[in-house]
């Protein structure tokens, strides 16, 4: 305070001298012109005036005095241009509280604040329209991979610039996010991945109590991880939501001065003040400390400052007394800043509005337009206590349920890197005839559906005996109620593809998290294929589920079938019994159906035959589509005690267990009709043997007709297009398999 007063007094004296003395000089000069006798300026001048007896001598003396005054003014200006000496600071133990200006991070003296205010008047160059903005995110595991999508959506929604995402991930997150971005196909977005497992040795020596675990320390090594050519990057936590264009934050880099290399927002809780509870002892920090949910990093300068050595030495020293970190990398960042406050540029707090309990976040905004970035940095996430939490929650849910397909917007006027997948897709679509009555069917075959693999936690290692089997199925929202029943009937691994909108995906998430049955199973992989187009892409869904199978064998089922109790173990025994390793076989599980919503599920084959005789059960689709399962030979199955082989026939579509490397389903068939028939035909063309299992069965449960079967029955053009696609498929089979495939066309003509 004393230094501030002295500075103001010096400023006032200098201003007075600069303004008053030139005015006084002008008066003296004027007096000479009007021949008004002036007072002598000095005894010497008085003597000279009397000796000369003229006004000339007085004017010469006055001009000398003016030059002296001007020299004094120049000296004063030079002194003002230099920052005043800082008042001596007294060392104190614990965290020091400093006053920061709104925009600057380290200015704690009046002179620095004045310089800062002057710099604000200098126009900073805006972010170029086509300048790429770099964003780094540490993401590990299934849950974080799901959460980060909302952050990405919020950034894409507001952005006007090309984006380059740098994801530091474990193998799980990389698999999920790589597939997501490949199928999302957002223009002017590039994604790179860096293996977090390779970085573990860099930070594993630091004990960390934070729920983020070892991955919560990865931001410390970004200077070493990211490309050496990358000069600056915005680092974000996965629980961030943007409410503005990220280019506004990128533009803040232009305000960094001197040795400022870190852009951070002050921590809005009292954590680093050490007064939250008795004996609370946080890591050292400058005042309230800084939150690392949003960081601006000048990577090139950090490398020159030997950042790696700086944070390591600080962490080693503090761990001798603190023993472990409580807030992961944030503790170490703050300890470094405490020692080197010149490194930090304090961002306005609206760039990281922290919604944890008992924060000062409400002081960061007065209106909705003030909000820039929302940070759900409490373990409670959306259940956090905040005066305006309902508004923040609704903003978050808007992006959570926002249709990601709408974010595939072109950035016009900006050259983008060649995306060969996108170019090939556009070329293929352009070759289709839009006047073709079956154009929409043909187009669906090439539609790229955004896909999020492993939407929920998955953990399963196949059995060591190489007999393990995964149940494969697909479903939409109207079949969700079947999941619990299937999990009760099948204890083995399951791979499911769900066709949902973004909003429905969140409904499914809430349903699954509220189900004890589903939450007790970690061996069920849920893969979301997001809705696009007017058809149900049934075979694409099956292929997505098949590709995620990690067992040697897979049982290709449908969601509305309940397998018999114990089918999982029975199929594994059949693998050995029928030498599936060395032969190409498709094991047929006979299919039945009931018209009763409440069924006493048969516990054995004998009980099933009894219900079949009583009319409680029927062979599947015997009254509407007999040909589909007739080759199974149910009459023989009734008395069979050993597996028996059956021949392929036209329209045969059994449910089978096959090896994982079996052919995929043909994507041209969408909605209802011929989707399984074509696959079984392909298996037969590849010389698979169809073997019926004598003690296996599955039962179809009743449900309302699907929308696609309704379209098939009511729309003549739908049926015409399906027939056209079927004929084209048979022609393709003939070209691929030659003479052996002629039987498929012959059988079709005879049926």
Describe this structure in words.
The chain is an alpha/beta fold and 751 residues long. Among the domains are: 218 residues, Spore Coat Polysaccharide Biosynthesis Protein SpsA, Chain A (Alpha-Beta Complex), CATH 3.90.550; 292 residues, Alpha-Beta Complex (Spore Coat Polysaccharide Biosynthesis Protein SpsA, Chain A). 40% of the residues lie in helices and 14% in strands. It contains 26 helices and 23 strands. The strands form 4 sheets. The protein has a 9-stranded mixed sheet. A 7-stranded mixed sheet has the order 3-2-1-4-7-6-8. Helix 6 links the parallel strand 2 and strand 3. Helix 1 runs antiparallel to helix 3 and helix 5 runs parallel beside helix 6. It is elongated and about 135 Å long. The N and C termini lie far apart (99 Å). The N terminus is likely disordered.
Secondary structure layout plus pairing:
Layout: H1 2-33, H2 43-52, H3 55-81, H4 110-120, E1 133-139, H5 141-158, E2 163-169, H6 171-184, E3 189-195, H7 200-203, H8 222-225, E4 232-236, E5 240-242, H9 246-250, E6 262-266, E7 290-298, H10 299-304, H11 307-322, H12 329-339, E8 344-347, E9 353-354, E10 373-375, H13 389-400, H14 420-430, H15 439-446, E11 451-452, E12 469-476, H16 482-489, E13 494-500, H17 502-513, H18 516-519, E14 524-530, H19 538-547, E15 553-556, E16 561-563, H20 567-577, E17 585-589, E18 591-593, H21 605-614, E19 618-619, H22 634-639, E20 644-646, E21 655-659, H23 675-685, E22 689-692, E23 698-700, H24 707-714, H25 716-737, H26 742-750
Parallel strand pairs: 1-2, 1-4, 2-3, 6-8, 9-10, 12-13, 12-15, 13-14, 17-22, 18-23
Antiparallel strand pairs: 4-7, 5-10, 6-7, 11-14, 15-21, 16-23, 17-21, 18-19, 20-22
Helix pairs in contact: 1-3, 2-3, 5-6, 11-12
């Amino acid at each position: 305070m004393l230094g501030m007063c002295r500075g103001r007094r010096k400023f006032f004296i200098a201003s007075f001298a600069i303004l008053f003395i030139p005015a006084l000089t002008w008066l003296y000069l004027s007096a000479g012109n009007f021949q008004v006798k002036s007072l002598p300026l000095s005894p010497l001048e008085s003597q000279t005036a009397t000796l000369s007896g003229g006004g000339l001598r007085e004017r010469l003396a006055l001009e000398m005095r003016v030059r002296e005054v001007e020299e004094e003014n120049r000296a004063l200006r030079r002194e003002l241009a230099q920052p005043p000496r800082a008042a001596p600071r007294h060392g104190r133990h614990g965290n020091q509280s400093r006053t920061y200006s709104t925009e600057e991070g380290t200015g704690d003296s009046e002179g620095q604040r004045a310089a800062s205010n002057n710099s604000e008047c200098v126009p900073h160059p805006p972010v170029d329209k086509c300048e790429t903005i770099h964003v780094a995110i540490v993401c590990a595991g299934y849950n974080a991979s799901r959460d980060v999508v909302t952050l990405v959506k919020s950034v894409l929604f507001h952005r006007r610039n090309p984006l380059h995402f740098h994801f530091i991930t474990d193998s799980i997150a990389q698999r999920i996010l790589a597939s997501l971005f490949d199928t999302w196909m957002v223009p002017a977005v590039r994604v790179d991945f860096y293996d977090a497992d390779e970085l573990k040795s860099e930070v594993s020596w630091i004990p960390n109590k934070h729920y983020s675990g070892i991955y919560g320390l990865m931001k410390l090594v970004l200077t070493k991880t990211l490309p050496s050519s990358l000069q600056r990057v915005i680092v974000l936590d996965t629980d961030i939501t943007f409410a503005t264009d990220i280019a506004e934050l990128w533009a803040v880099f232009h305000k960094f001065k001197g040795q400022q290399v870190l852009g951070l927002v002050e921590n809005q809780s009292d954590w680093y003040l050490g007064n939250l509870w008795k004996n609370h002892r946080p890591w050292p920090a400058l005042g309230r400390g800084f939150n690392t949910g949003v960081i601006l990093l000048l990577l090139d300068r950090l490398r020159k400052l030997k950042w790696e050595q700086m944070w390591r030495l600080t962490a080693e020293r503090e761990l001798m007394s603190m023993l472990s970190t409580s807030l992961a990398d944030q503790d170490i960042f703050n300890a470094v800043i405490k020692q080197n406050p010149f490194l930090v540029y304090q961002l306005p707090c609206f760039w990281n509005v922290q919604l944890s309990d008992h924060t000062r976040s409400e002081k960061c905004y007065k209106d909705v337009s003030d909000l820039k970035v929302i940070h759900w940095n409490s373990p409670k996430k959306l259940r956090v206590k905040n005066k305006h939490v309902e508004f923040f929650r609704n903003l978050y849910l808007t992006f959570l349920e926002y249709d990601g397909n709408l974010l595939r917007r072109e950035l016009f006027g900006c050259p983008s890197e060649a995306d060969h997948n996108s170019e090939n897709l556009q070329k293929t679509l352009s070759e289709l005839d839009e006047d073709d009555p079956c154009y929409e069917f043909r187009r669906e075959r090439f539609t790229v559906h955004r896909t999020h693999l492993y939407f929920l936690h998955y953990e399963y290692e196949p059995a060591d005996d190489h007999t393990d089997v995964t149940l494969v199925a697909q479903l939409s929202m109207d079949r969700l109620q079947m999941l619990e029943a299937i999990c009760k009937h099948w204890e083995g691994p399951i791979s499911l593809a769900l066709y949902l909108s973004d909003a429905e995906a969140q409904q499914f998430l809430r349903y699954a998290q509220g189900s004890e049955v589903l939450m007790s199973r970690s061996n069920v992989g849920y893969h979301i294929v997001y809705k696009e187009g007017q058809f149900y892409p049934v075979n694409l869904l099956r292929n997505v589920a098949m590709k995620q199978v990690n067992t040697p064998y897979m049982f290709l089922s449908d969601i509305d079938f309940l397998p018999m109790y114990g089918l999982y173990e029975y199929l594994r025994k059949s693998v050995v019994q029928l030498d599936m390793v060395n032969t190409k076989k498709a094991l047929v599980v006979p299919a039945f159906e009931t018209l009763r919503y409440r069924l006493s599920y048969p516990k054995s084959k004998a009980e099933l035959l009894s219900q079949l005789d009583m009319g409680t059960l029927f062979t599947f689709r015997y009254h509407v589509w007999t040909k589909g399962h007739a080759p199974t030979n149910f009459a023989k199955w009734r008395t069979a005690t050993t597996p028996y082989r059956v021949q392929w026939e036209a329209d045969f579509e059994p449910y089978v267990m096959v090896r994982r490397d079996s052919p995929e389903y043909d994507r041209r068939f969408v909605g209802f009709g011929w989707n399984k028939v074509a696959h079984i035909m392909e298996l037969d063309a590849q010389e698979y043997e169809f073997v019926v299992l004598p003690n296996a069965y599955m039962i179809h449960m009743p449900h309302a007709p699907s929308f696609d079967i309704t379209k098939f029955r009511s729309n003549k053009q739908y049926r015409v297009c399906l027939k056209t696609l079927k004929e084209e498929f048979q022609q393709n089979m003939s070209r691929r398999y030659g003479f052996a495939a002629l039987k498929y066309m012959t059988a079709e003509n005879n049926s």
